[in-house]
Amino acid sequence: MTERTTTETADVGEPRRRGPYRKSRLVRRRILDAALEVFAQSGYRTGSVREIAARVGMSEAGLLHHFPSKSALLAAVLAHRDALAAERVDRDTDDGLVALARLVGLARADADRPRVVELYCVISAEATAPDHPAHAFFVDRYARLRARIADSFERVRAAGQLRDGVDPQRAAAQMMAVWDGLQLQWLLDRSSVDVAAELADHVQRHLRVPLPRA
Amino acid sequence: MTERTTTETADVGEPRRRGPYRKSRLVRRRILDAALEVFAQSGYRTGSVREIAARVGMSEAGLLHHFPSKSALLAAVLAHRDALAAERVDRDTDDGLVALARLVGLARADADRPRVVELYCVISAEATAPDHPAHAFFVDRYARLRARIADSFERVRAAGQLRDGVDPQRAAAQMMAVWDGLQLQWLLDRSSVDVAAELADHVQRHLRVPLPRA
DNA sequence: GTCTATAAACCGATAGAC
DNA sequence: GTCTATCGGTTTATAGAC
Fold first, then answer.
1. Which residue in chain B is spatially nearest to A122 when comparing CA positions?
2. CB contact under 8 A, A126 and B176
3. B181/B194 Cα distance (integer angstroms)
4. Is the dihedral of CA A16, A21, A22, A28 positive or negative?
5. From first to last of its 214 residues, what are the pLDDT tens digits of chain A?
6. CB of B34 closer than 8 Å to CB of B57
7. What's the pTM?
8. What pairs with residue A207 in β-bridges?
9. With contact defined as beta carbons under 8 Å apart, do B79 and B2 qualify?
């Protein structure tokens, strides 16, 4: 959002030859990666800026030059990860079935990103407290996702592919719930459940037609 | 487990006239209640013994006379709440349908205990980290609950009340998952979902017969 | 059984040098 | 852009008086 897009005016001999703020962007990226790991493992409140800075290999003050505060750092991590996920899922489709299948595909891909799964699991539970810095973010995020998934189920219904007695709104809430809950079980014990398989099974139970794999 | 059951030998004039360690038991109970609130609101790692002690109205050292450490206090809170829930659900039944209905009933009753719901939501997510003091507790707890609920679904199947293509093990994992996930949504926004209603709807989708209300 | 006092550690954020 | 140094705050747990 606040990303600079101007091109540099001095081109030669300067350390930032290939673009403006190039080093800053790389450093910020490394900080985000380290913050993701620490917040995932320890939560926001217990995870420390000191630990994040140590993983990046710089001092606390050096890190806080790039992000004004700890909570701003968390916000940046969440915004960054949400943007990456949206990139994967939000490509245009009118097909509700495809939209739902993409979510299952995201769950399948998440098996290779346990740190990301852990981040959302831990921080969302923490953010249940109204005074948590990410509280409003998660309240809004869940309302938004519920509405979007309900819309997908609605399109499935309009295409005559939804089973009788299925309410799109309720199906959306249940799909998100089973997804989150499976992730918790999986984080506690990797061998206990197959998140994507169970999520697909759950969704399939609402459909008249097979859920595509993509 | 370590509860004393001996009766007192001196009966008159002593401050603990109505039973041995009576005051200690009451104090321990008040500590457990306060600890539940603090751990629910702030998690284990951020929740402080100081805050718990303040709510009980005693000093930190005074509190730690009753529980040897902070982690022992958390263990006691969890054991206490699990015992209360088991009391409600574990009465003997051979009827799988009744067992499942009791779980939905517990979810319904939990609408009046948001602090308890919050405790499990926050601590289980935190306990995802292998070095968390409650990690082993939750890994074991989830394995145990999955097995028990799978057994209930198995009994439902044996009674010819399970829909075709439903695997008891997977149904158990999915039921726990949707329950946990709905609680998270509910904690973030009380008006967003009806946990018990959605849980009942989910379970009903696996059954040939209506789930009883009790 | 409860207290005060204290140890030993960690925290977020800022000031200011370079 | 990164550092050192530091302020003012927090934490769990223990020692020892009463």
1. B125
2. no
3. 12
4. positive
5. 334 434 444 445 444 455 666 788 999 999 999 999 999 999 999 999 999 999 999 999 999 999 999 999 999 999 999 999 999 999 989 999 999 999 999 999 999 999 999 999 999 999 999 999 999 999 999 999 999 999 999 999 999 999 999 999 999 999 999 999 999 999 999 999 999 999 999 999 999 999 999 7
6. no
7. 0.92
8. A162
9. no
- Which residues touch A111 (CB under 8 Å, ≥6 apart)? A195, A196
Instruction: List, for residues B14-63, the tens digit of each pLDDT value.
Output: 444 555 667 888 999 999 999 999 999 999 999 999 999 999 999 999 99
What is the token pair recorded at A80? 């960054």
Q: Which residue has tokens 């595909």?
A: A105
Is B184 close to A202, i.e. CB distance below 8 A?
no
d(CA A84, CA A110): 12
CB within 8 A of B97, min separation 6: which ones?
A: B156, B159, B161, B207, B209, B211, B212
d(CA A62, CA B179): 43
Separation of alpha carbons B30 and B162, rounded Å = 44
Shortest distance, CA B16 to any CA of chain A (angstroms): 40
d(CA B209, CA B160): 9
The percentage of chain B sitting over the pLDDT mark of 90, rounded to a whole number, equals 87
Measure B61 CA to D17 C1' (Å).
13
Domains of chain A: 1-74 (1.10.10.60), 91-214 (1.10.357.10)
Q: Report the distance from CA of residue B113 to the C1' of nucleotide C4 in Å, as an integer.
A: 37
Chain A residue numbers with beta carbons less than 8 Å from the beta carbon of B41 are: 129
Pairs of residues, one from chain A and one from chain B, whose beta carbons lie less than 8 Å apart? 136
Cβ separation B170–A146 shorter than 8 A = no
Distance from CA of B19 to the nearest CA of A (A): 40
